[in-house]
Amino acid sequence: MVKGASVLMSGMRPTGRLHVGNYWGALSNWVGLQEKHACYFAVADWHMLTTGYADTGRLQENIREMALDWLAAGLDPEKCVMFKQSAVPEHAELALLLSMITPLSWLENNPTFKEQLQELSNAKDLHTHGFLGYPVLQAADILLYRAGLVPIGHDQLPHVELAREIARRFNSIYGDVLPEPQPLLTETPKIPGTDGRKMSKSYGNAIDIYETADSLKRKVMRLYTDPLKARADDPGHPEPCAENPPGCVAYALHKLYASADFSARRGEECRAGEIGCVACKKDLLLEMEGPFAEFARRREELAGASGLVEKILETGSAHAREAAQNTMREVRRAMKLA
Questions:
Q1: What is the pLDDT of residues 9-51, one digit of tens each?
Q2: Which of 16, 68, 133, 274 would suit a FRET pair with 62, their CA atoms being 20 to 30 Å apart?
Q3: How many C-beta atoms lie closer than 10 Å to residue 320's C-beta?
Q4: Element (H, E) at 227
Q5: Count of H helices and E strands in the chain?
């Protein structure tokens, strides 16, 4: 890790292979941040249980697959701490202690709780203590490492603000022990899934960052575009608008994988009815094939190194436990539990 730098903490839930939204929304940013900050990146397997408690059969496989994705994308265990949340039991201890002082109304008014309850409740029973209280565990994840920075997009600001409120309440009762984390706002683009909704494994609309050439082609060629553009010479609506609220997914991906000049020109061509959706998707496929093939090459190379992922997570978890134990000694002392 970067010595003497500000501490930064983040994590991901191991729910399966990472997708394009995970990469552009967080992972690509992490790769740059590890050069400037003392970074802790958690494989948040306990957080996975908040919605996936009934299906843990592939959990260990998913942990390994996600760690491989991290490494292939450029995370370096010599520059950051990559660890497994459940290998650091202090996460659970601090979450329990913080839950004692967190008002129920803070959790019930959490906008993400309300949104996911509405989106996922038809498929899963989410009326659980763990799902309601996941922001407390999330606060514990951050505060355990005395993280001053949490990299997020604007839509995740309520998450960090709640962690700040919990830290502030703890300090008001027990004394100044837990630093209040600050959001490190990053301009992360909103990545739509193949159907135009937010890209998510839960919605079945994700493009994995480890797609084969054939599966990538299938997904790109069926991307949601503009239902009003039935013919190639019909004017299109590439950006979200009243006529096409989700916007064109192919155009959103052009802006990630093509140059700024090309994507701007493609938007003009679409609006003028100078190109059809099929031709546009074929161009997008050509843009994506190179990065996907290079990522697959690196990942397969790493996957062939026996025991590599396990060793990295074991070493990282040992470093994380040391930092976590230091924090918990002070927390217990402040709460007169020591």
A1: 999 999 888 999 999 999 999 999 999 999 999 999 999 999 8
A2: 133
A3: 26
A4: none
A5: 15, 5
